[in-house]
Amino acid sequence: MTTSCHGVAGEGEVTAGQPRFALVGSPNAGKTSVFNGLTGLNAKTGNYPGVTVARFVGVCRTGGDSCLIEDLPGTYSLEPISPDERITVDVLDGRVAGVARPDALLVVADATTLRRSLPFVAQVLARSLPTCLVVTFTDELARRQGTLDVDALGEALGVPVLAVVGHRGRGVARLRDRLAEWGSWPTPVLAPPTDPDEVDAWAESVLEFAGYRAPERHRITQRVDAVLLHPLWGTLVFFAVMMLFFQTVFTLAAPLQGAVETVFGRLSELVSAHVGNRWLSGLLGDALVGGVGAVLVFVPQIMLLFLLLALLEGVGYMSRAAFLMDRVMARVGLEGRAFVALLSSFACAIPGIMATRTLPSARDRLATMMAAPLITCSARLPVYVLLIGLLVDPSYHVGPFGAQGLVMFGLYVLGAVSAMLAAWAFKKLGDHRGGLLPFHMELPPYRLPSPRSVLVMMWSSARAFLRKCTTVIAATSVLLWLLLNLPLHSAAELRAAGVDTTDRTAVSAYEVDHSYAAGLGRLAAPVFSPLGFDWRVNVGVLSAQSARETFVATLGQVSAAQDPENPARALRTMTYPDGPHAGERVFTAPTIAALLVYFAYALQCMATVAVLRRETGTWKWPAIAFTYLTGLAWVMAYLARTLTVWLGG
Amino acid sequence: MIPIHPQPVPGHPDRLRWIVPADAMPYAGPLAGLPGPLAALLDDGTLAGVTAEPGAVVTRLGAGRTWPGAGARVRTALHAALEDRDGWTPGPGADGDHGDALLRAAVTELLTGPVGGVARSHGGGIELVGVRDGVVTVRLHGACHGCPAAWFTLHQRLEAQLRRTCPQLREIRAAASA
Amino acid sequence: MNSGDRHVDTEPGRTAAGPGPDGAHRALADLPPGARGRVVTVTDDGSSRTARRLRDLGFTPGTVVEVVRRAPLRDPVVFRVKDYDLCLRRAQAACVRVVEVRP
């Protein structure tokens, strides 16, 4: 069965009698924090079959028992207007293959917007499943001079009502107790009306009975928005925030990166000092510590970026940024929230692709996912730094700007512009069956997020990145090291080839030149030689297919440089050992330009492919992304090379 | 459309109490005449009876009917009926005295409860003297007696709370102290 | 206080009979920031989903909507409806027909 691979419930967790609860509510109602509060951090994500909608299921312990909680996609109505919203309704009706119908429902509603939410609650109550209403943000309601009698609300609705302040964890324990006794929850004698006018009258009457007074307008939000959304000041602040974002990438994280580098340097020294066996020492020191270390250097930077993104999101600035950028994004057929996803992609495409979950339209989501890998992620940075160092003299200036910085900036612009064009193309080509959805977005009041919720948000993004470091990159490094060092050559063989066996560098060079990796690199030569890559570059490009960062370490290993982390000097003087170009330098300007452009476009990240697979639920989209990006990378690199040759005269 | 919502009547699953705004239902007790839409439901046996309470209308289901089956029609009929204020005729038991009895009960509940509590917390007290034709008479004693501020706040609270449930309330007066 | 007059007409959730005496319907998108309008009806922009979604978001007849502010490029626009801030593009806001309410 196809759905088995989406299995989100862990083995051994599901027992026959385990009750299933579904969490429903509008976006921003605080559903996720209620879900996290109930299930802890052990939620499993998957995908609903056939649609690009992420699915979250977690286990909640209620006393001695446990139950399953499914966090359904946020929706404003149970009358779906998109295939995505259809999922929520289909799950409630038990019409999704492989997803059992929930036994009971938890509706989450924001106490500060209860007037808007009650018609939705009416729709949920009309499903006649045991239902409990969870009212969130009651603390904020009280702070803003609003009132609500939770017990009276329960009396009026005829169902249990509980106040939960999710991000502070208040009320969660009582909710847990309530879940345990779901079999005896009261149900309304008569379901709420369905006629729109009657629903309004019903909601009005229920709120009156519950002594509801809507909150005052949030003064701080009003004042802050007057500045942050001001035509002039708002735009300035927006650019300042973007500056801060990129400052974090380039300056703030530098000392931390230095520290990580030092640690791994020491570790590498320790390994070579204490592991006698040349083979083991190479495998541990060069492959594992060197390979993984080269990537872990970016952890401080990535963490800082994720922290910043989580803070901006938690405070409520992201929806403002989306509001400010909506008109710009509309030019390529997307909406403001797609900007937030693309912004996250500057850190790493993985959280960027995950951030597309906030887009209500499946077409927008796919177009954004297809564009996100083009944004210059931090994994491209070390490659760019290395190649730009080879290409441009650091002392060369254009006006007040260093030429190296300008090339870097140009690559960022290239990535962003290409991403926008790609999004536009995919939106145009996209499936028109769904039709266009009306754009709407809530601007929640500014809130001070609790440190815990920020850390949880940061961790959920960082986890995927760290997993990539420890699995994909470690495996690639080891595999590459093996490919470069095998097969073994006997001393007799070396002497027969005219290599001085006492010269370590000469032996290394011979071994690399006759390794499996070299064979592989030469095999790829017909594909890459039009771009000016020699077999050693090919090995780098091929190894970077799993993760871009490995390119740097690979070239280091390949060029047998003294310092594998800084092979620039060795590379600059690297020449073709044989073939028609023998003796010529490998890293000429056209080749470097082609390499830079190749890295700007190619989808060289297994983790991104995996996330695309997870988020879209099929292999079709990662396959499309891989094909079009790799094809585009080759064509654009060829153009870049031709252009550079032509310019260089 | 006038805001209404139903609530169960404990111990009587065949009844629903429809909470209506205090001023939408001017009577309390049995009703002699009902507006057309509700009367039609009594005639066809969907409903067996309709009575008025302060701030509520209670409907009793006809034999063999269920709320999930008939409730939506009752709701729509009640909405229409509430728009037709002249269509309601009070029954024999729904006179002013009956209204006073309900009002007395409501005042007593408030004085032993939240409103009386406020007076007691200030070292005073508030006591019901009588209810007649919608006029409630109360007496202040202890620290509250003679204090204009106490009278003002208690009067305000009592009136605001009573208005929510007792549309027949006309006035709250202070009795001369004993 | 007179017990006969306690309908609070500014309460959302009540049905407006139609255009007020002081004017015909206007599109919500045409109101300037700071203005308020009472929703009369929500029309279609070619697909019934827009009208349905706008109702789900709180634009029901009788509800008072305030235009809060416009984005720097005039689009989208932030509205305050049913106690929360919502941003819509002008194209969608044009589907909401309102009569202007003077504060």
What this model shows, in words?
In chain A, 57% of the residues lie in helices and 8% in strands. Chain A has 649 residues and is an alpha/beta fold. Chain A has a domain at 2-216: Rossmann fold. In chain A, the strands form two sheets. In chain A, strands 2-3-4-1-5-6-7 form a seven-stranded mixed sheet, sandwiched between helices. The longest helix of chain A has 35 residues, at 451-485. Chain B has 178 residues and is α+β, with helices and mostly antiparallel strands. Chain B folds into two domains: 5-90, Scaffold protein Nfu/NifU, N-terminal domain (Ribosomal Protein S8, Chain: A, domain 1, 2-Layer Sandwich), CATH 3.30.1370.70; 96-174, 2-Layer Sandwich (GMP Synthetase, Chain A, domain 3). Chain B has helices at 36-43, 67-83, 96-112, 114-121, 148-165, and strands at residues 5-9, 12-19, 29-33, 47-53, 56-61, 89-90, 124-132, 135-142, 171-174. Chain B has a six-stranded antiparallel sheet with strand order 1-2-5-4-3-6. In chain B, strands 7-8-9 form a three-stranded mixed sheet. In chain B, helix 1 packs antiparallel against helix 2 (67-83) and helix 3 crosses helix 5. The longest helix of chain B is centred in the last third of the chain and has 18 residues, at 148-165. The model of chain B has no long low-confidence stretch (mean pLDDT 82). Chain C is α+β, with helices and mostly antiparallel strands. Chain C has one domain: SH3 type barrels (Roll), CATH 2.30.30.90. In chain C, 13% of the residues lie in helices and 31% in strands. A six-stranded antiparallel sheet of chain C has the order 1-6-2-3-4-5. Chains in contact: A-B, A-C, B-C. The A-B interface holds A 155-156, 158, 188-195, 197-198, 200-206, 208-209 and B 1-8, 13, 16, 19-21, 67-68, 71-72, 75-76, 79. Strand 10 of chain A pairs antiparallel with strand 5 of chain C.
- Helix content range of chain A: 55-70%
Task: List the domain count of chain C as a whole number.
Answer: 1
User: Hey, which two chains have the biggest interface?
Assistant: A-C, 46 and 39 residues
Q: In percent terms, what proportion of residues of chain A is strand?
A: 5-15%
Q: What is the level 1 CATH name of chain C?
A: Mainly Beta
* Level-2 CATH architecture of chain C: Roll
CA gyration radius of chain C, whole angstroms: 14 Å
- Overall average residue pLDDT of chain C: 78
* Number of distinct helices of chain A: 29
Tell me the CATH topology of the domain at 2-216 in chain A.
Rossmann fold
What is the end-to-end distance of chain A? 60 Å
The structure class of chain A reads alpha/beta
Q: What is the CATH T-level topology of chain C? A: SH3 type barrels
* CATH class type of the domain at 2-216 in chain A: Alpha Beta
